[in-house]
Amino acid sequence: MSYGPKPWQQLHWDERAAGNFMGGGAGTGLLIFSTLAGAEGTLRIVLLLLSLALIGIGLLCVWAEIGRPLRAINVFFHPHTSWMSREAAVAPLVMISGAASLLWPQLQPLAALFAAAFLYCQARILKASKGIPSWREPRIVPLIFATGLAEGAGLYWLFAPWWGQGSTWAWLALGVLLLLRFLAGSGWYAKLAASLQKRPASLRAVDRTKPGYVAGSLVPLALMLIVWLVPLPASLAQPLQALTGLLATAGGAFFKFMLITRAAFNQGFALPHLPVRGGR
Hints:
Blueprint: H1 15-37, H2 41-65, H3 83-101, H4 108-127, H5 133-136, H6 140-159, H7 168-195, H8 200-207, H9 210-213, H10 215-229, H11 234-261
């Protein structure tokens, strides 16, 4: 017999908080992947602007969630203890270096480095939420990081085929990232399923995230292999590449939305020893 209230769905972080992880993760992933893939010319400018826009939208979402937006400056004051403060401290570096890269391309690797730090901070924000079992599981860190990179690779391939860019290794890299996201998600889920067996509501909530890293990874991975292994004309290969990129990005966005808004059950509490009136 258990005592105390059952776990309940947290309501402090809603769709706006999810928007920060969705936009920030996809934007930083795109900035990193497009830099490594060597996007050039107009495509580089388009992807750079898109990545900065996504990061900015994510930051606006979390700013809108704050009960007193004018006090948002306080988030910068605790970098020694808070991963959210560290994220906020890195954000201006990403935006400034990314904007400067529009004029000076040689600065883009620095912007990508700051983007990687931003994405890591986001993953650690979730792990630091000790009261939410689905967030505090250590495997959430590689899962969130791999998800952001896979989303970024997906966005790159959503645009690159139409500019005639995108190398074979970048196409294979998308497949590797999708596989890593699937493996990281499976490991994360297995650990949670073992620890939440006695909490069916919490486990059902975590189940709702599975399509994001299962179908959202395996379906585009299958398309990637088809395009890679089967000789297809460009008129067919390009739309399939763009579709693969779209599905890879959509799967990650769905996973993070469900993780923040649906799978975030509090741990609850138990009282194994109740006081007895008149007894020691």
